[in-house]
Amino acid sequence: MNSEDIKAIQELLAVPQQIVIIPHKNPDGDAIGSTLGLWHYLTNSGLSATIIAPNDYPKFLKWMPGNEHILNFERHNSQAKEKLAEASLIFTLDFNHLGRTGQMAPLLESSEAKFVMIDHHQAPSDYAVVTYSDVSKSSTCEMVYEFIAYLGGKDHISAEIANCLYTGIMTDTGSFKFSSTTSRTHRIVADLIDKGAQNTEIHHQIYDTNSPSRLHLLGCALKNMVILEEYSTAYITLSQEELDRYGYNKGDTEGFVNYGLTLDGIIFAVIFIENKEEGIIKISFRSTGNFSVNEFARTHFEGGGHTNAAGGKSDDTLSETVQRFRSHLKNYEEQLLIQSS
């Protein structure tokens, strides 16, 4: 953030505001961790703030301190709409296009509130009066830590804030193994531990609370994996029937796509998940090195994200989507082979 943005934020927070904080639809650890971290900081500072999540999120994120105060737009619709109508200042975290909020988008687009964006994805839109966007950051949680520091509040980071921000940084860096993890990331994490983040317990809550059905679904996903050595690519498919057979719950497929990248010689991994309710195929893309899945997703599957992690969707059937995906790979053969060599 530059000095002009910092001053603008300080002026906004110096007067009474009705603040709403919003993560993206289908929020992940970084989205929930960053919104809760910011919520704790603002409310601890005596400000009025409410988090509204566009929809539900995985059970393994609901242990975080303050989770019980989050309004689910789908479940608490009238209350959420009331808060949005009253809002004078809206923080949008971990996304940079209002369309990423699903059913909430029309209300946000027509809102007279001032917006502040904190996000680390590429190609931000320009709806905010203050846009804090930095694609080099590991996570939005890392940016919220910096945001608090810019406001002079680093010494006021509580254990609750530390636990929330640590969670988002840990999940968005793949437990600190992704290339977005910098020395600065580690210094921030060290400070969060000093301030009360329970790193071992956080890891347990996120990764070691699986249900038997989730592990059975993982077995199904790995059995479905297809390896295309000629393109240094591996992909997984999961049909709605398979999800139903193994009692799928929201968040159960989190991280499945990364298994493809554990294979020697594979630099491009994809998972295709059928969603009959929405009538789409949800797609997650991952890569290593310089192969841009952000560009691939934007070009072919109405998506985007980061260089090494992106999402997309398809309105075709599962088999048609996979066939279309495979047909595109020949156009990237040289890039994929260069990266894998």
UniProtKB/TrEMBL annotation:
Q: Name one Pfam family in it.
A: DHHA1
Protein name in UniProt: Bifunctional oligoribonuclease/PAP phosphatase NrnA
* Domain spans labelled DHHA1: 245-332
Q: Which organism is it from?
A: Aggregatimonas sangjinii
Q: Which residues form the DDH domain?
A: 18-169
Q: Which domain of life is it from?
A: Bacteria
Gene Ontology terms for molecular function: nucleic acid binding
